Prior knowledge:
Layout lengths: L12 H7 L5 H10 L11 H7 L36 H13 L2 H16 L17 H18 L36 H30 L3 H12 L11 H4 L3 H12 L2 E2 L3 E2 L6 H16 L2 H26 L6 H7 L9 H27 L6 H8 L21 H5 L4 H4 L5 H12 L5 H18 L11 H5 L15 H28 L8 H17 L23 E4 L5 H8 L16 H10 L6 H9 L4 E5 L22 E4 L3 E5 L2
Parallel strand pairs: 3-4
Antiparallel strand pairs: 1-2, 4-6, 5-6
Helix pairs in contact: 5-7, 6-7, 6-23, 7-8, 7-10, 8-21, 8-22, 10-11, 11-12, 11-14, 18-21, 18-22, 19-21
Protein name: 4-amino-4-deoxy-L-arabinose transferase-like glycosyltransferase
Keywords: Membrane, Transmembrane, Transmembrane helix
Amino acid sequence: MTEQQQPNAGAAVKPRRWLRPWLGKSEAKAEVALKIPEQRKPAESPKEDAQEKVAPEKERTPLPSTRPPGAPPDPWTVFATTPEQPPGRIRRGLAAVGRTLIHEYALAAYASVVIAVLMTWPAIRYPLHTLPQDLGDPSRQAWQLAWAGHILITDPKLLWHANAYFPLTDSYAFGDSLLGYAPFAMLSNGPVTAVLIYNLLFIAAHALLVFGAYALVRQLGARPTGAAVAAMAFAYAPWRLAQEGHLDIISAGGIPLALAMLARGHGWSMRYGLRPSRRHAGWAAAGWLVAAWQISLGFALGIPFAYVLGLILIVLVVGSLARRVRKPEFRALARFLRKPTVPLLGWRLAITDTLGALIFAGVALLIAVPYTRVADSPTRADEIDFFSPPLRSLLIGPAESRIWGGAHEVPRASLGWAAEMSLLPGFVLYALALAGLGFSVWRLRHRMVLMVAITFAVVLTMGTNYLGGRFTYLPLFGHYGASFDQRIPGRLMLWVTLLLAILAAGAVDDFVRRAEHLAAQRVPAWPGPWLRLAMLTPLILVALEGWNSTAHPVVPEQPAAMRTVTGPMLVLPTAELSDQTVQLWSTSEFQAIANGGGTFAATRQSELRSRVATFPDIASIEYLRSIGVGTVLLLRDQVAGTSWERAGDIPVDSLNIKREDLTDAVVFRLN
């Protein structure tokens, strides 16, 4: 076909070439790629063919994006979209604080404090003038707190040489030290503020029990409802009501809190196992610091806690070694531990655990030094045997329980020392733990381990009432001196209660899961009021069993003479119970006093009281001078019915001493 027969050949190219300058760069390239190639006629000569080639066109210069200098402002900029400004530091800080204040654990802390105020009522009603349970040990421990706060500011090297029990040394080691509370007692100034600080710490200790147990059970994998039931059952178990007069025994909240932090730091939970991606050395370090603080409160609970931490360290070391073993005989163990190629501990966690264990041991040993200098009791083994509870004591509630106190009066009378042997953790807790063996969110092997641990803890709690304690309690605790206060096996009920609470949380959690599944099948998917009440029933029942009827006696007013008379002195009358109140009165001046209550230095204090029973006479005066006492303060309103009832009216001219009559007391100057 000739060229005349193809008039349209290549005709579409010319408009495209004409449009090309008006197209963008990308459109021009696309247009060139899509155009239909035209049929070319045979070139007559190479020169003609070269002339037909079109030279590539130059790219168009882009338009300026900014206005030239001096040009008027563009009126269309008011319609432009402005980018959203990121929040400033103040807004980000306020948002972070807001998230912290409504975090789950923040809400748990608020609830713990409110519940503690309600469950310890009326401790907060008259916090300046009353003490929980009685005026014995609470008065002495209020004095301990005040002394620690005072001496750490004035002369820390005299910490262990307290002003009471003069002239004995290391008298601050007569009982659990409560040193961890010393920073809170530095504001103490006299018995009134000492009582206030004691009551506030008493309530805070109950709040920490709830919060620590909640954090532990949540870390193990329970839902909030199950963790709340476990926390209430642990913190307000009926047996604990008999210990309301012992702040050192109530102050056990650091134990579950430290365990929760250590589990969180190692990325372990009972429900989900070991998750290396969740490991955090900071949480592990915090757990060890809380553990060290807990043992600084006293050895009565600190020594069993140290054994538990030691067992955890052994498990970690053995597990780490087992994961590195590749021998055939250890393959089954490696499969049981899961993921043998992933190390159980990273190098950061290994260093943290090593340093944490050393700090914990260092704090314990440093505090233990003065306790080793305190004279041991020759009847320590007899005391352990006396305080060992029978198995039936785990079903008997204390007198301070509003629910079971009156109902268990008869069986409680059969116990040798009911205050330390009424060890009921709660019948509701028993029922929930028993249900947890059948259905639970915990795996079957975990339930079996919990059951074995509960059995072992019960055996230890029985002390010498199980096989004489030769293979159970005595090898673990029988070799400690009397000052370490391991003579009462019933206080190990703390661990029985904690294990029962974990087992019960699994049952409550499974019940809540089933209830939520049932509610999801409703139309609309919403739980009814009866279903909501059913999910809260275990929590209500546990709280009812922890309802207390604890007495809160009024603290006797401090005699004015205690603020003016200096020591060393003896305050009369003196007795095991009243001397603890005298110790509290001495917190105004902390003068040296020979008085000292409780069962500490019992032989010496008993000798003191018998030697001064006839005061004022030559024998008692010479004895007091021999021990360095130069002043005797006789409280007139306290001596009725005692051997010192007429001591303030006896002439002293022939005794070579001076007497000074005050409004409410008589002061005898022996020197």
